[in-house]
Amino acid sequence: MVVRPAREWIRTDRGAAPSAKQVRRANRRSNDSPGGICLPGGKGRMKATSRRIAAGSVIVSLVILAVKYAAYALTGSVALFSDALESVVNVLTALAAMAAIRIGARPADEQHPYGHHKAEYLSAVAVGAAIVMAAIAILREAWHGFLSPVPIESAWEGLAVSGLATALNAAWSAVLIRSGRASRSAALVADGKHLLADVVTSLAVIVGVGLAVVTGLVWMDSAIAALVAVNVLWSGWQVLRENASGLLDEVAPPEELAEIVEIIDANSQGARGFHDLRTRHAGRATFVEFHLTVPGEMVTRTAHEICDRIEAGLKQRFPDSVVTIHVEPE
Q1: Residue 40 DSSP SS3
Q2: Number of Cβ within a 10 Å radius of residue 113
Q3: The most confident of 19-23, 114-118, 153-157, 246-250, by mean pLDDT
Q4: In this structure, which of 63, 160, 199, 264 has its CB flanked by the most CB atoms within 10 Å?
């Protein structure tokens, strides 16, 4: 007997195969009340919050891009131009995150019975690729700056404007990372980490351009732009590396795995034990499957009640979990 997760909750122990209509009905029930547990709108509110933050990120990124470009227009600095160019990537990544969150929030359907959770990983990988492309573009501008250096004009006014954009970036990156971790949104976390890297590079640019103005070494402007490009390249690699594993069905983190084992142990009274535990992450969802060993004489109803109890415990801790339990006699 296989005790199916809520998204596939159709009794098959009476021999009849479920129809497509039954599958759709079960999916609708699952989306309304995951696992039969009363979760008062928490899951829906979490997704709605992620969508609002993703939309807000687009607006904030556009504002910061405008402010940074104003700093470049005031000064003509290659380093400040590289900082503004990175903000173009911020806008693109914010748009990608917003699209991915909308797609990932779609309920499971007949073509995607396990949901659309991996859309966020795809978005994050695209973000990483865009960051790498931005780094290459910045290196190109830095090289042209070395070949044809240009004096920096209105430096202190431009640096003040750049400082304002950096402060906005720092505040918004903290919002994105905190909200992304709370909602387990890979797209928001990737966007927030990229903005945090942008803050670090912007601070380095401000200090470096200030030194270039004070010392009169014009070549320092292009050197700073090159250093920015290296830092951006590293940031892009980190985003690619962290999210590529999600596309490969990486196991749940050790701390989550320990919690899962503890919850199964605490709610499996009456069973003999469990084995072959497997987990994987896909966006917000955690997929859990294992074999539950029960006494050979145990009736189906009792075994089913044990499975319900385990699933309820797991979903209380991990609301977006999808649990599959295979019951086998001792």
Answers
A1: coil
A2: 11
A3: 153-157
A4: 264
